[in-house]
Specification:
The protein has helices at residues 3-30, 35-60, 65-71, 74-87, 93-110. It is built from five helices and no strands. By secondary structure, the protein is mainly α. The termini are close together.
Length: 113
């Protein structure tokens, strides 16, 4: 894999990394009893979505749409990691099976890239 291709994939997966924080701040917003904190977390979500939209559009210029959209499934895995690290949730066998299926699917679609 050449340097440009690695950089392109880093940008694509960087967009997914940014997007994964939306679920973190959504959960933080839903757990608040203070309306101002809820609004703050929702505002942070909107800012994250704006940043993600810009990075995503730039990444789309470098990939076939099928590859880019199928790769978006890794966001679920990143969100699972945040659930464990930030919210101390437990990983179940179903989470692991689902994550493995996502990785295999992304690999199959991206293999020709």
């Amino acid at each position: 894999m050449n340097g440009t291709k690695v950089t392109n994939y880093m940008q694509l997966y960087g967009a997914f990394f940014i997007y994964s924080f939306v679920s973190v701040f959504a959960k933080l917003a839903s757990n608040q009893s203070n309306i101002y904190m809820t609004i703050l977390f929702i505002g942070i979500e909107i800012v994250i979505l704006g940043i993600y939209a810009i990075v995503w559009q730039q990444a789309l210029k470098k990939f076939d749409l099928v590859v880019a959209l199928s790769s978006k499934g890794v966001t679920v895995i990143i969100s699972l990691i945040w659930a464990v690290l930030i919210f101390q949730e437990k990983i179940t066998i179903n989470n692991l099976i689902g994550s493995a299926l996502i990785v295999v699917g992304v690999w199959l679609v991206s293999a020709d890239e």
